[in-house]
Amino acid sequence: MGELIRLESIVKSYDGNIVLDGINLSVSENEFVTLLGPSGCGKTTTLRLIGGFEKPDEGRIFFDGKEINNVPANQRPVNTVFQNYALFPHMNVGENIAFGLRIKNKTDQYIKDKIEYVLKLVNLKGFETRSIHQLSGGQQQRIAMARAIVNEPRVLLLDEPLGALDLKLRQEMEYELVRLKKELGITFIYVTHDQEEALTMSDKVVVMNEGRIQQEGTPEQIYNEPENAFVADFIGDSNILPGKMIRDYLVMINGIEFPCIDGSEQGFKPRQKVDVVIRPEDIEIKPYGKGLFNGTIISKLFIGMHYEMLVESEDGKIEWLLQNYDQHEVGEKIGMYVKPENIQIMHKPRSEDEEALELDI
Hints:
This protein is an alpha+beta fold. The protein folds into 3 domains: 3-229, 3-Layer(aba) Sandwich (Rossmann fold); 238-279 and 344-361; 284-337, CATH 2.40.50.140. Helices cover 24% and strands 34% of the residues. It is built from 9 helices and 20 strands. The strands form 4 sheets. The chain has a 6-stranded mixed sheet, sandwiched between helices. The longest helix is centred in the middle third of the chain and has 18 residues, at 167-184. The two termini are 47 Å apart.
């Protein structure tokens, strides 16, 4: 897949407040890219810049190798689906879908054929004459999708389009979006603050915070190999703990030495302070005294298919979050074990690295 969209050193501010601070991003043709991050991180502004609804203060935007900074929104080969769907309430389903085609002066027969095609594509065949008020939230979302894709854009921009749906319907629509993307061969750029949506649908996830890209990669890379504490904390549940490298492949956490798979090859030095990420599902429960470390279960919740437990370390300094399919009781003393490949070592922020490396942990 060749590069379709490129953002170079994009800066954007509103009323003196920087919203995007030097964004560089590449999107390949037929790629499903999700911009993921908390409210105010700049993801929607990035989407609006690509769509032509805003102009950058600095930097350049390229489409198919050509700069499009000054190309108006209606001349860009992109369509946008918004969270509120923006359907015309006074028009029926067919009229809503046909709106963009009529502006382009397409023939009545062409419009009729296209409406039938896209309604079949979004599994709403025969809904042409339905009123918008007669549709459920999920059906309105599908009509908004149909209205966007009927214009055959090369890029579809989606700004939290599933945010107003209930959980079950949202999950169904996630699969529908992936199916549509594969069938249509359109590039999708999707904005959400929901990590599950991002990990479920995307070819590439771009994690943003405070106007900057924190990490980009496949869902597996983002989840299993977070590059900093923000990404680790934002994507799934994590134990993020202060640690110290002892030597290659050995890290100390709370006075206990853990074998790991990181070392000098990843830029870590002996005695260097680090952040250590251990996912709660990667902590194996062993009999007391039979693991790498011990603790006492202080709380337990049943979360659907698994139990979520807080375990206090023996010295009382750390609470570990565990997820396990087997039931254990509050007050039970357990041993815990973590495989070396499930321990993710991360560099601390530069200012902390520059402090004295010696720290009793």
